Amino acid sequence: MTVDLSMAIRRGAVPSDQLAGTREQRRAWLAKRICEELVHLDLSAGDHVTEMTLADTLGVSRSPVRAALHLLAEHGVLEHRRNQGYFLTRDARTLDGLPLQTGSTPDNALYLSIIDDRLSERLPDRFMQIDLVRRYEVPESRVVSVLSRLREEGLVRRNPGRGWTFEPAINSKQALTQSYAFRLVVEPAALAQPTLSIDRAALARSRDKHLELLKSANRDDLVQALVFEVDASFHEMLAAFPENPFFLEAIRNQNRLRRMLEYLEYTDRQRIGLWCTEHLGIIDALERGHIRKARNLLRAHLERASTSIFNK
Description:
The chain is built from 13 helices and six strands. By secondary structure, it is mainly alpha-helical. The chain folds into three domains: 90 residues, Arc Repressor Mutant, subunit A (Orthogonal Bundle); 61 residues, Winged helix-like DNA-binding domain superfamily/Winged helix DNA-binding domain (Arc Repressor Mutant, subunit A), CATH 1.10.10; 139 residues, Four Helix Bundle (Hemerythrin (Met), subunit A) (Up-down Bundle), CATH 1.20.120. Helix 3 packs across helix 4 and helix 5 packs across helix 7.
């Protein structure tokens, strides 16, 4: 059986634009998401897991998928057969909770410094790779690694000739306020659609992510990229429930635009705990079939987040 994750993407279980973190963190994060989908699809030992299908469906290049599959092979989850690809070595249901997360690396500090300098307009729209090497006094290999991450997250692009350019992003309180105004119209409306179809399995997975994050919210090694993934994937999950691709695409685009500014806010551990609790309340309402209540809770959640911008 070949893995087909297209339905998983459409329902928001695996957001294509949320492959974040340092290189090792991305590899572990992607491997964990692949495991979750294998569990959901209830695959069996011996089933074929194809690199190309995963790359196409997740919306990333084959290189990070290959790295994630290699990690799963290192853990004995997959077997690589020459000229054939990867095959499950055991039933997918045994993969739930497989420990794959890696710790923080020095690249994360460089990444956040670049974001902070960009938001403070200390970095221009266009720049050269060597400029970052000189500015931060780090080896070029680290700059290359961080630029690769920024590119995968849609924050920078390589110029046709030389150098790099920062992509448009929400980079001010005013722009973030406008983003919340837009989301306040779109996200509650998604839960009011007649085509609404609640995916209870997706709700359960999201609940587990939030509970896990609450347990680790006060840890010093908490990685902002992983916090953002929990937040962004929750809102994309809700946008996927109407089974209308325009809602999901709109929220995915907002998540991409707000990533840069929101990362710096995830150092506020009290805020993380607050929105996690609010998200869990929305999940509870949806699981009980209280759609109107969930819609009202979502609206209140977004209004609180928008208001908090001016209280900092």
